[in-house]
Amino acid sequence: MSTKKKLRKMPIEYLWDGLVLEDDIFNHNGSVLLLPKGELVTEGKLKKLSNFSVEEKYVMVCEECYYNILSKANIPAEIRQKITENQTGYTEIKQNVGGIFHKASEDKEWFHNDEIEPVIQQISEKLNDVDPILIFSCINFPRPMDEGLQRHCLNVAFLNGLMGEWLNLPKEDIRLLVMAGLLHDIGKTKIPEEVLNAPRKLTKEEFAVMRNHPVFSYEMMEKGFDERVRLTARHHHEKMDGKGYPDGLAGDEISLFARITAVSDIYDAMVSKRVYKEGRLSLDVFDSFYKQKYDGLDMDLVMIFLKNMRKNFLNKKVIMSDKIIGEIMYIPPNDCANPIVKSGKIIKQTDDEWYCKEILSEI
Ligand SMILES: [Fe+2]
User: Fold this and answer.
1) Is residue 78 exposed (0-12), middle (13-18) or buried (19+ Cβ within 10 Å)?
2) Chain-centre distance of CA 309, in angstroms?
3) Ligand 1 centroid to 167 CA: how many Å?
4) Confidence class of residue 5 from pLDDT cuts 50, 70 and 90?
5) S-S: 26 plus which of 4, 60, 138, 218, CB 3.0-4.6 Å?
6) Residue 133 near residue 316, CB atoms below 8 Å
7) 154 class by beta-carbon count within 10 Å (0-12 exposed, 13-18 middle, 19+ buried)
C-alpha cells in the first residue's frame, strides 16, 4: 500500500460491475488491500466487498481515483443523494423532525419547547462537525412532495445556524435561530393538505388561507418557547419595504432573526425547484440573490450570505457538463452563476455550454 496517497471514503454503491480499477481499493480504515489496481469489478466481487464492510458500507480509494469513479459512475442523483443524507445523519434528523411535526399538529398539549430540544441539539452537533458543503448537498435537492415541509424546515434551521455563525452571534442566539428556522413554518400543519400541496397556482381564497401560517406558527408555540423564536415565525414573510404579511412591518421593525430566516427561506425554496438545471442550483440562486430578484430581503444580510457561500464553494471539485472533473477557482460576486473553473491545464469561466453540473462533496 502506498502510504503517501490520501485516501477517501467511497460508498460501495458507487462501484459497478465492469469497472476497471485505476488504483487499489482498501477497507474502511485503509489497512487491508481489498482489490488491486487493474482489477475488473464484478457482481461477485461487489458482494464480497459488501460482506467485508457490513458495518461501514464504504471502502477507501485514493483521491484521484475517487473523483474519477464519481465522474464516470452512472448513479442516479436520487441514490447518491440518499447515500449522502444517510452518511451525514441528515436522514435521521429529518425523520425526527417529521415525527415532531406530526405530533405537534395532532396534540397541542404535547408541543412544548422541551420536546424540541433534542433535535436542536442534533442539528447543532452537525453544524459543528460536518463540512457545510455536505450540508448544502443535502439541502440542494428537489424533494418529494410529502417530505416538503419537514425538509424545508430542517434546511432553514441549518441555514439559519450557518448564518448565525457567519454573523458571529453568541452561541445562545445561534441555538434560538436554529430553533426559529426549524419551527417557522410549523403553522403549515394547520393548512389543509389540498391547499398546502396543490400542484398548481393557488386561488385567491386558498392563498388567503395559506397566508395564515405565520400566525398559526406563532400561536402553536405557546408553551415554553422563547418570544424571539415565536416572533421569527410570525414575521418571516414580512418585507423590508413593508409589503409583507401578517403585520406589515418594515425595515428594523422586523427582528434580525426574522430577516435572517427570510433569506434562508428563499434560498431553500429556490434550490428545491425542479426547473433549475441539476448542479447549477446554488450558483444560479446566488446570482439571483445578487441581482435582487427576490423582493423585500435585507440586502446587507444577503451580501453576508453570498460572501460566505462563495467562500464555501471555493476550491470544491465539480463534475462539469462534459463529465470531466473541475475545481472552482473563483466565483465572481457579480456573476456567481459562472465561476472560473480549472480542469486539467484549462482554466476558464463557465458559460451556457460548459457549466458545473454537480458540486462534489466528500462523505
Ligand atoms: Fe412560510
Assistant:
1) exposed
2) 12
3) 23
4) confident
5) 60
6) yes
7) buried
Q: Where in the sequence is the domain holding 43, given as residue range(s)?
A: 7-75
**CB distance 138 to 130 below 8 Å:** no
CATH code assigned at 103: 1.10.3210.10
Residue 188 CA, ligand 1 centroid: distance in Å:
8
Q: 141 C-alpha vs ligand 1 centroid, how far in Å? A: 19
Query: What pLDDT is stored for residue 92 in this prediction?
Result: 94
Q: For the chain, how many structural domains are there in total?
A: 3
Going from the Cα of 249 to the center of ligand 1, the distance in angstroms, rounded, reads: 16
What single letter denotes the amino acid at residue 167?
A: L
Q: Among residues 90, 213, 98, 79, which one has the least CA distance to residue 147?
A: 98
Per the structure block, which three cell numbers stand in for 92? 435521521
101 CA → ligand 1 middle, Å:
15
Closest CA to 139 of 153, 155, 119: 155
Quick one: cell of 210?
395559506
Close Cβ partners of 18 (under 8 Å, ≥ 6 residues apart): 40, 41, 42
Does any domain span residue 298?
no
Which of 176, 300, 187 has the alpha carbon at shortest distance from 240?
Answer: 300
